[in-house]
């Protein structure tokens, strides 16, 4: 898929889900989805039914570690299920890329190693995330995933 993103404004949103500290591209991430997926129906007040998010932050390039959260967006956190955490993601400008599930790791490499160094934007120190929409099928390697990278104009 082409590496040219759409630049959008996304309002703040709140998520409920399960989180881990792990290594980038670790098998722990699919395992987290394996634990969270069967529990999604426990989450009340979903803002986007059948849409889920993989929230990433605190990436440490020297260690290859990050915090990852499998989550769904909600309108209220009052009834968050036991064992789940909540997080509010601030309103932000994002570069939004599309990638096929089977090429997700390669897409992140292209974004961080090719697009960002040459783009008129720079990444902000804020959470970035994958958005899995209503048409996403985890069993189909060709399913499309949206990747949201928080950005601001370079030299702004």
Automatic annotation (TrEMBL):
Residues 3-152 form the AraC effector-binding domain. PANTHER family: TRANSCRIPTIONAL REGULATOR PROTEIN YOBU-RELATED (PTHR36444). This is GyrI-like domain-containing protein. It comes from Leptothrix discophora. It comes from the Bacteria. Pfam families: GyrI-like. InterPro entries: AraC_E-bd (IPR010499), GyrI-like (IPR029442), Reg_factor_effector_dom_sf (IPR011256), YobU-like_regulator (IPR053182).
């Amino acid at each position: 898929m082409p590496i040219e993103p759409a630049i959008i404004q996304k309002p703040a949103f709140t998520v409920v889900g399960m989180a881990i500290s792990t290594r980038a591209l670790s098998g722990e991430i699919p395992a987290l989805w394996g634990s969270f997926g069967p529990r999604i129906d426990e989450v009340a007040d979903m803002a986007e039914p059948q849409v889920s998010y993989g929230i990433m932050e605190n990436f440490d390039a020297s260690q290859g570690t990050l915090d990852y959260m499998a989550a769904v967006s909600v309108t209220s956190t009052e009834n968050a299920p036991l064992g789940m955490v909540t997080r509010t993601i601030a309103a932000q400008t994002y570069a939004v890329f599309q990638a096929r599930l089977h090429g997700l790791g390669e897409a992140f490499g292209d974004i961080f190693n090719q697009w960002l160094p040459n783009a008129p934007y720079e990444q902000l120190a804020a959470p970035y995330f994958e958005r899995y929409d209503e048409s996403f099928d985890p069993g189909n390697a060709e399913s499309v995933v949206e990747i949201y990278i928080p950005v601001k104009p370079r030299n702004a």
